[in-house]
Structures are given as C-alpha cells and as structure tokens.
Amino acid sequence: MWKDCGVDAMPEMEATLKRDAVVVPLAAKRVCGAVACRDCGVYRLCAALGLEEDELSLLERVVKRKLIFKRGGLLFRAREPAHYVYAIRSGSVKTCVGTEGGRVQITGLHLPGELLGLAGFDSREYTCEARALETTSVCQVSMQQLEEVAERLPAIHREMLCIMSGQIRHYEQLLLLLGKRNAERRLAAFLLGLSQRFALHRYSPTQFNLSMSRSDIGNYLGIAEETVCRVFTRFQEEGVITTRRRYVELHDIERLRAIAHDPGRRAAAPSALASGT
Asked: DSSP of 220-253, one letter per residue?
C-alpha cells in the first residue's frame, strides 16, 4: 500500500478526525482486505501515466494517510473547508444535504473504489455531509497537491475530468431515477445501478451487502420506507431477489431491467416462474 507521508490534517479537520476516525499508517500493510489498488479511483490517476504498481511515487506525494471510520463516523460536513478527497478502500459512505425545511436529503451511496469530495475543488468547501454506513477505510488525498500534479501532467488532468464526468453522469441517472413514478421501477433501477458499480470494481454484481437502511433507501429514492419494504418483499416472493437483513442476491437481472424500464412486463413473471421457464 502507499506510504504514510506523515502530514497532519489541517487544523479545521483535526477535531473531526480525532472524534470519528482512527489513523492507520499507510506503510503498516502492503495489502488490506479492501478494494485492490488498481480498482481504486485514485489509482486511475496513476494508470493514466502508465505507472507500475511498484512505481507509485505520484500517489506517495498526494495520499496523506489511511483513516478508518466506525459506523456513523463523520468524514466531513457541508460548508466545511475542503482540503482532501477521500478514496474509499472498504465499507461505504452516504452523503446528504439539509433542506430549507430542516429535512435531510440523502444524495448518494458511495462504494469501495469511488472518490468523495471532488465537488469541493471549485469552492474549496464541501457541498454535503458524508458519514460512514459501516466500518469504512479511506485514503485521504491532498486536493492542493493533486491539483499541482495535474497542472504539470496533462494526463492526470484529463483523468480527473473523466472521473468528475462520471460523477456528473451518476447524478443525472439519479434525476432520471427520481423521475420514474412507479416505486418498483425506482427500486429495480437502484439495484441494477448498484450491481453495475460493484462489477466495475471487481466485486460480485449479484451478491452484496446493502449498507443503507430501508429508511435511507426510501429517502434516497423519494418513496416511503414502508413502500421500500413492501417492494423488496414482492421482488423476493417473485424470485427476482433474495434478501437476508442487508444481504442482497439478485437472481434475475433481466427481470429487474424489465421492471425498471417497463413495469407492465412484470405481470407475466409469476406464471413463468411457476412453469420453471
């Protein structure tokens, strides 16, 4: 794994880090039980230069340290000064914003291999709050040094634009998802999206832990928690998925696609399942 540069957090972040995170020296282990370096969002920046695994001098300059957050741990708050980008090594993180009416709106579920905090590059403030949904390991990446490297190396700058473009597409897809009026379509599309993202980082696309609670899923998708539970039960009864607490197994990806794009096509499923076709 990458070396610990021994650089302390900025003063504004110190209290948060002491309260919510455990600092682990990056030189302590070469391999950790998490997403492989080649599948991490930060590694894509090195891949753009054609660096080998034993030539990660670029990352050694911008990755400050590895942090471990317990469930509920706060990575950063909205409007807090943004000094770092976070690469998720293991676990998961939800992001949310406060509304004018005092509500909390969940805006994202972030998985191993993905980056957090990129929106802070422009304003130098975080635009949302980020909390660990489970024990989560992250690599802390200096925004300032990452920018300095990108200015000198066009390949890194292009790759950063590609990563940010991917995040914009993710939010566009979320808007399209919220535009689906049917709760089943929303939930089916949500599960399909998770499947694709897990596959992208070399995890199983059909078996995974869904770290968001049913309440959080409902908040994220704009449907009631009771409706989320009811739709999950319906999917399970029809043999489309299996759920055990937060473990989810997808049995029929094509059926999920049919539900997500055309809810009328789901009506034929029970008889097809009964006949074994």
From this structure: HHTS-HHHHHHHHHHHHHTTSEEEETTEEEES-H
Burial class (CB in 10 A: 0-12, 13-18, 19+), 40: buried
Q: Are 104 and 96 in contact, with CB atoms under 8 Å apart?
A: yes
Can you tell me the mean pLDDT for 134-158? 81
User: Mutual orientation of helices 154-178 and 183-200 as an angle, nearest 10°?
Assistant: 160
When pLDDT is cut at 50, 70 and 90, the band that residue 89 belongs to is confident
Q: Which domains does the chain have, with CATH numbers?
A: 11-176 (2.60.120.10), 181-274 (1.10.10.10)
Place of tokens 């535009």: 179
Model pTM?
0.73
Give residue 13's pLDDT: 41
